[in-house]
Write a structure and sequence with these properties.
Blueprint lengths: L1 E4 L4 E4 L4 H8 L5 E7 H6 L1 H8 L6 E5 L8 H13 L6 E7 L1 H13 L5 E6 L2 H7 L4 E6 L2 E8 L4 E4 L9 H18 L1 H7 L9 H17 L14 H14 L6 H19 L4 H14 L10 H9 L9 E8 L2 E8 L1 H12 L7
Helix pairs in contact: 4-5, 5-6, 6-7, 6-9, 7-8, 7-9, 7-11, 10-11, 10-13, 11-12, 11-14
Bound molecules: nicotinamide-adenine-dinucleotide.
The site of nicotinamide-adenine-dinucleotide (NAD) has 32 residues, from helix 2, helix 5, helix 6, strand 8 and helix 7.
Amino acid sequence: MLTIKSIDYKVVFEESLNSLVSFIQQRSYSQVIVLVDTNTREYCLPILQETLGDQVSFDIVEVDPGEENKNIDYCVGVWQTLLDFGADRNALLINLGGGVVTDLGGFVASTYKRGIDFVQVPTTILSQVDAFVGGKTGIDMDHLKNVIGTFTQPKSVFISTRFLNTLNTRQQKSGLAEIIKHGLIFSKPIYEKAKNIATDKIDQELIFQSVEVKNEVIKQDPKEKNIRKILNFGHTVGHAIEAYSLSHDKDPLLHGEAIAMGMICEAYLSHLLNDLSSEELEDITQTFLQQFPFYEYSASIYPELLKLMQNDKKNQNHEIGFSLLNSIGKCDYNIYASESDIISALDYYKTFREDNR
Ligand SMILES: NC(=O)c1ccc[n+]([C@@H]2O[C@H](COP(=O)([O-])OP(=O)(O)OC[C@H]3O[C@@H](n4cnc5c(N)ncnc54)[C@H](O)[C@@H]3O)[C@@H](O)[C@H]2O)c1
């Protein structure tokens, strides 16, 4: 069993999840409630049930899966169910799912009766390496990502790679994007290890190393006043493209796919506005082009993308803020780009259309 000490809670890496049982038994919760989505109910709940066995009884709340459901309506549904279950302030919520469930469940728990305890049991690569770490809870509104939320730390986090076997390749790759990002901003060795990896080779060690990076950064700056901003590399453009795709595409981009595209654009900005060399820009661009599908768009969507970026939480005085690489493994923050720089970055990505390569 491996553990990482985060701000004021423990992250436990353990295939069996036995520590979750002892965690619950050591506390006198009035009730235990597990939040799942339809998929994690089918694929992950049996694993949890096997672990909790007869030792811990619990109720289940289920939501529909997908980013389009990470919204206030679903929170109302979960709050209502907690009320129907008679959950008091001493109840525990276990969020069993990907980033949507851990974000939404964390937000619901942090606000229900002014806050009840919750633990995260992330079940996708993305949520294991990223979504649960750092206490950001949240939901989307008006096509804007994570605009409503809190900083609330879970009581503990339990990570088991047993959950990952039922993920499809697309979802596995989505998580890989965030592992590669952790390498780009903080650790060249992690980048080199992750950049060409086959998804079935992503193991507990790489997940652990990736969590260590994020944990190190958030411990220094829990409320994102300074260095924590480097975790947003790729996310200014990436969140805009993700929100755009969610509201326009029948089969929208996954979070990691949008962030991968965002990282190509922001690597370009890193070359333009910071010190990233042209060789490293090329290396990063090829890494993401090889690992992720190309997203087609025309310049006619730029005004909408720019409007979405203008609502980004990192902006100041109406300027669009970026975290940009200095070199692979090192990232700076609070760099502001003009609209024409951002358009050049979006144009740069477009030049890699299949038929142009
Ligand atoms: N709070 C943070 O700091 C933070 C950081 C990064 C991302 N996020 C958020 O995370 C979300 C994306 O997370 P995600 O990619 O995990 O998305 P997700 O929760 O939508 O999961 C992806 C899909 O996989 C299914 N699924 C989950 N676990 C499964 C399993 N073990 N087997 C089979 N299917 C399974 C889900 O039902 C869903 O359909 C976004 O909303 C993003 O904003 C939050």
